Write the structure tokens for this entry.
Amino acid sequence: MHSLRNLTSHSCSSSAALRTTAASQASSSAVHVVTLAGRRAHSYYQHHAKLSSRHVNGGFPAFGHNATRSTVRSERVFYHRSLVSSPCAAVASEETPTAVADETAVQKIKDAEEEAVKNGSYPFELVEKRWQQHWEDRQTFRTPDEVDTSKPKYYALDMFPYPSGAGLHVGHPEGYTATDIIARYKRMQGFNVLHPMGWDAFGLPAEQYALQTGTHPRETTIKNQDRFRSQLKMLGFSYDWQREISTTDEKYYKWTQWIFLQLYKKGLAYQDEVAVNWCPALGTVLANEEVIDGLSERGGHPVERRPMRQWVLKITEYAERLLNDLDELDWSDSIKDMQRNWIGKSEGAQIKFDVAGTEESLEVFTTRPDTLFGATYMVLAPEHPSIAHICSEDRKAAVDEYCEAARRKSDRDRTESREKSGVDTGARAINPVSGQEVPVFVADYVLGSYGTGAIMAVPAHDQRDFDFAKAYDLPIKTVVQPPEDFPLDEKAYTGSGVIVNSKNADSSLSLDGLSAAEAKEEVLKWLESKAIGSRTINYKLRDWLFSRQRYWGEPFPIMFVDGEAVAVDESELPLTLPETEDFQPSETGESPLANIESWVNTVDPSTGKPARRETNTMPQWAGSCWYFLRYIDPQNDNMLVDPEKEKYWMPVDLYVGGAEHAVLHLLYARFWHKVLYDCGIVSTKEPFQRLFSQGMI
């Protein structure tokens, strides 16, 4: 917890310094408060919530946008010496909040205060309830719609939670406490502060609960949101609840749909037949991260690979910008590295291998064209389209069986498995520099979604290729000189060295004696002169699979007329979910929406032709890609956000949330923000200037 102190390292006037002391002591004493709370007969969680909220306030319960110095003087603060040693905790007066009018109630509170001073107890059940009601009545933490823009601003944002049925867990207030300290501190410094809260409320759990109980996901979601809101208010955080949003609100997802239409118009949203992780038991497609050892993360159900028509977002168009703009952000190096690795930029070469005895050719991407002479076999991903054309007749049954088994595995299982399996197709490719024929295998450790879905294997200098070559008794040719004592028979040499054994028969290309860098340049020139290779930049990042076969999600504003996709007119948004009591997936694998014919079947207003609505819904990530913008102007029915308000409040000055969101939510939100920037909707290239990950309890 002491690391949170780094967020308040500023010099200030004597009065501000006094208040800063309260904030600093609040962070450093949180563990102490929880320890003391454990002495009571109440639960750990209840006391962590109650006591830490009171302690965070640092003796200044008002100090919102509507607070004044006279307000502070008029507010009586309860304190206890053993819990709060800050001098700020001693601020008090003879008045009590206006919400407490009954003399008996006032006397009861006074008696409780005196008793607290005597015996060391803290009557939180009296103190906190009345102050929280006081804040509610006075809208103490309300940020006005119109603020004095000559004053500095500070936008402190928590990653908004999914409102589960279990309510808050102790990890939620850990991060929320940090932003609350900073928000209060910045208000005291005279900043206009935006500190909102809302709900990332679409998602699979509510739909699964609907399948089990028949309860509409909307009812479950509203109930859970009410519980979360109540708990957060009980904790005493200084959120502006007038700006509360929910991704399931039709007025909110109208603009999520509008953003999708901008993506569609820019050619960044397209349909494709994609091999996806289909879970029959859950009736939906799962992301790779949601599949563990061939089973769904939620429920442990079997998952299979199945080609399905999906909407895909072309995030790869923004790969270079997503990579380069990381340098401008005040994020931890570890989070930046996670995004860089996920984007996975590689500079190398695209090389063509002809298949002997056919007119087919196979293209590979490699970052090591200098080792091309050492390529002694090739490997295709099980989903590679050329397999059916090059496979020999006597190997076809074995190859088909292997490919079918691979389809039941997730990409993660395939790449992380220590056992390398494969099957020979019977085909032979021709190494373009040596002219030698090399066998072509199918193996599941190669993914169709990365590069070309085919690799040239250099087992002497790649450990994965080495292991495979040993398992299938394939030749291993050294082309980078290792140290004399290196055990070539035991492992691949992946270090640096001069190039050896790399000269073709007619001596038109010789790399022997060159460094790796020199050899790369020479072989690239030779390949380009022969039109069988070219310099290429490749990204590990794949386009974003954006469809889910669920009811409880944003409907796509798309209809199909004569089989062609047609965008719904923006004036018709929001396209709302239909009412239903049947949440079972359709027999075709489509979402439950496909079962509601009165909703699916419609008419294209521009042509009068019959049309069919898209039955997929958007993933939960959609609503969280732009929610920080809606907080700025939550009641605007005419535009996503007022340009002047956006220009004043953006970017987010402090964003606090878990590091587990580094390569999904954070990357997706950055992508959408850049698209909106290109559309002229937002004024900043990046949404979150400073990111702080609070860690785990």
Observations:
- The longest helix spans residues 217-235.
- Confidence is low (pLDDT under 50) at residues 1-6, 8-101.
